[in-house]
Design brief:
This protein has 176 residues and is mainly alpha-helical. It has a single domain, classed as Serine Threonine Protein Phosphatase 5, Tetratricopeptide repeat, CATH 1.25.40. The protein is built from 6 helices and no strands. The longest helix is centred in the C-terminal third of the chain and has 33 residues.
């Protein structure tokens, strides 16, 4: 698979898993913190692996590697300690969202010279940062509100990742 094909596939994987997480969080907002932690843990690990699996020729910077490792660590910690409190889970999700959001904004700025549609990656980054800040401001809002906020975020983020994958796919087809 070519570098751009791999990048498209990884964006699709990130988008699909984000949408699945979003649907679960919205369909069952009353799930326990334990179940939400489990679903988030798996999502964060898959997202982190996808970030680390970017092709070597891609614009792969320390920030992307850091965000990937942070996602995997956040996922593992969440799965190892599933009885984590709602507040701790909220702060973990908040930190993860802010860090990955900043990295996505940075990547979008770097990629603007090479691809069209980079605004979608930047938008996903802004959305991530906003979610993280909202969680920091109101970590006491409870698991139900966090589940709904995270579900809405994940759905929008997943759709944006799929749009970006489509844009990258179209871009790679017109340059060949």
């Amino acid at each position: 698979m070519s570098g751009s094909g791999t990048a498209v596939a990884l964006l699709v994987i990130r988008g699909v898993f984000a949408i699945l997480f979003g649907v679960v969080a919205l369909v069952w907002p009353g799930v326990t913190v334990l179940a939400l932690a489990f679903v988030f843990g798996i999502y964060a690990i898959v997202d982190g692996i996808a970030l680390l699996a970017e092709p070597k020729g891609a614009e792969r910077r320390w920030g992307t590697i850091f965000a990937g490792v942070l996602g995997i660590l956040a996922g593992i910690l969440t799965l190892v300690w599933p009885a984590i409190t709602a507040l701790t889970l909220a702060l973990l999700v908040g930190i993860w969202a802010v860090v990955t959001g900043i990295m996505e904004i940075s990547t979008a700025i770097r990629l603007r010279k090479w691809i069209r549609g980079e605004v979608f990656l930047g938008l996903a980054g802004v959305l991530s940062v906003v979610l993280g800040v909202l969680i920091f401001v109101r970590p006491d809002a409870g698991a139900l509100v966090i589940a709904v906020m995270a579900g809405i975020y994940a759905l929008i983020f997943g759709i944006i990742m799929l749009i970006l994958a489509f844009q990258l796919y179209r871009s790679s087809r017109t340059t060949v």
